[in-house]
Design goal:
Number of strands: 2
Shape: rod-shaped
Order of helices and strands: HHEEHH
Strand order of the largest sheet: 1-2
Strand content: 5-15%
């Protein structure tokens, strides 16, 4: 829209300067040259703006994040169904082992006279019991 307005203004200026009656042809030529120079300046500005828009588009494309979903498609009796695979978290055995190790270490340090030894032994025992309990819970969920 802006370009159209600038173009119409410049064409109007050229029209009025060309219809001007002047005894001196040099004055008319210098006015035409001013219009031509202003048109060149406007064209150069527009070229710079366009190149900046292209660069901005390139930068935006580089920053674009592409997300790929793991999907599996199965086709049965002509109907296509799409199911997305759910991201797996920790297993029950792993959660149980971590929780058991923490509780066992705290308990072992509190009970034992040698705090370091008690924490290590309690942590190992707690991890074993927690992993076993988590595995049992996992198997019952299936």
């Amino acid at each position: 829209m802006r370009n159209l307005l600038v173009s119409v203004t410049i064409l109007g200026m050229m029209f009025f300067t060309s219809c001007k009656n002047s005894d001196k042809s040099g004055v008319v030529d210098s006015e035409k040259q001013v219009v031509i120079d202003s048109m060149k300046v406007v064209a150069e500005k527009q070229r710079i703006i366009d190149s900046m828009k292209v660069d901005a588009a390139k930068i935006a494309k580089e920053k674009e994040v592409i997300v790929v979903n793991n999907t599996t498609k199965t086709q049965s009796s002509g109907a296509t169904t799409t199911s997305t695979t759910k991201r797996k978290g920790w297993s029950g055995a792993a959660k149980g082992a971590v929780i058991g190790a923490g509780v066992g270490a705290i308990t072992g340090a509190a009970i034992s006279k040698k705090k370091g030894e008690g924490a290590i032994i309690g942590g190992l025992a707690g991890a074993g019991v927690g992993a076993g309990t988590g595995a049992i819970i996992d198997s019952s969920k299936k």
